[in-house]
Design brief:
285 residues; alpha/beta; Rossmann fold; 24% strand; binds adenosine-5'-diphosphate; binds magnesium ion
């Protein structure tokens, strides 16, 4: 892609406007941490097929604050991925709206970065080239790309594997690449849909710790969908507990304690037990 001219929604920006693609967090620098960044208003998503109509989400409203990690937990099929897809702009709600920094979002945009459960990496590129992909598209010069990828490869424990190919990596390492690739862009919001769902329990715990470490060095706004209550309590500032479909908000928990948290502490165990017992009550299987 040409570096000199990017066309965004019919307007032309030259390379001095690069901030739009590779530092979209700066678009919302006027919003203080702790204030609403993403606002979900009266969301309804109804899927219609020839055979049936499914109301996945109905009249759902929630605000996500700048700089927080919010987890969404709820029974399988309650609408978690649907909500995330609406925020990503990949799915249009049947009614209601999503505002980011007060602007209605109607399409996918570089202010929202995604981390996928199946990694979605480019197998023909090296680890470093995967991490730098978005910067390349944004026309960031090679030297800066290298400097930024060095930092994120290190933060995710991947420095030694910079030149490796994707097929040479374990699942846990692939997901580290996925996280580095999203974080390096400094998107205003990072969306993760069960990012550790394909990993074994031990690798999963290690990746959760890596994510906590990265967040210590720079604040990010993250919406994290998971079916693991333990994971949600370990990672999040707030946990949004949803009912069975169509998702309504059962509770919003302000998780106490600084990260990294002690999973065996009485407070942690008590919260986990409460949420799990609610989710069991909602299980329709
Ligand atoms: N593309 C689709 N077409 C029809 N129904 C769908 C589609 N995507 C999801 N659904 C249905 O919507 C409901 C919510 O799905 P989803 O958001 O994926 O739930 P979760 O991520 O919480 O498991 C489920 O009943 C699911 O079967
Ligand atoms: Mg899902």
């Amino acid at each position: 892609m040409s570096r000199s001219k990017l066309v965004v929604k019919g307007e032309k920006y030259d390379s001095s406007d690069r901030v739009r693609a590779d530092r979209t967090d700066l678009l919302y620098s006027h919003i203080p941490e702790g204030e609403t960044l993403v606002s979900i208003k009266d969301l309804n998503v109804t899927y219609r097929t020839d055979e049936k109509t499914t109301v996945a989400v109905d009249d759902f409203s929630f605000d996500i604050k700048k700089g927080e990690l919010v987890s969404i937990v709820g029974p399988s099929g309650c609408g978690k991925s649907t909500i995330l897809r609406c925020i990503s702009g990949l799915l249009q709600p049947t009614s209601g709206e999503i505002l980011i920094g007060g602007n209605k979002c109607t399409t996918a945009g570089s202010d929202r970065g995604m981390v996928f459960q199946d990694f979605a990496l480019f197998p023909w590129r090296s680890v470093r080239k995967n991490v730098e992909f978005g910067l390349e598209i944004a026309g960031v010069p090679k030297e800066e790309r290298q400097e930024r990828s060095d930092r994120y490869l290190k933060a995710m424990g991947l420095s030694e594997f910079a030149d490796s190919r994707i097929h040479e990596l374990s699942g846990g390492m692939k997901q580290r690449v996925g996280i580095a690739r999203a974080m390096i862009m400094h998107p205003a919001v990072i969306l993760m849909d069960e990012p550790f769902g394909a990993l074994d329990a031990q690798t999963r715990n290690i990746l959760q710790e890596s994510l906590v470490n990265v967040l210590k060095t720079s604040s990010r706004t993250i919406v994290f969908v998971t079916h693991s209550v333990d994971e949600a309590l370990f990672l999040s500032d707030r946990v949004l507990v949803l009912s069975k479909r169509p998702a309504t908000i059962h509770t919003v928990i302000d998780v106490p304690g600084e990260r990294p948290r002690d999973r065996a502490s009485p407070e942690f165990t008590k919260l986990r037990r409460e949420i799990l017992s609610y989710l069991e009550s909602q299980n329709t299987l």
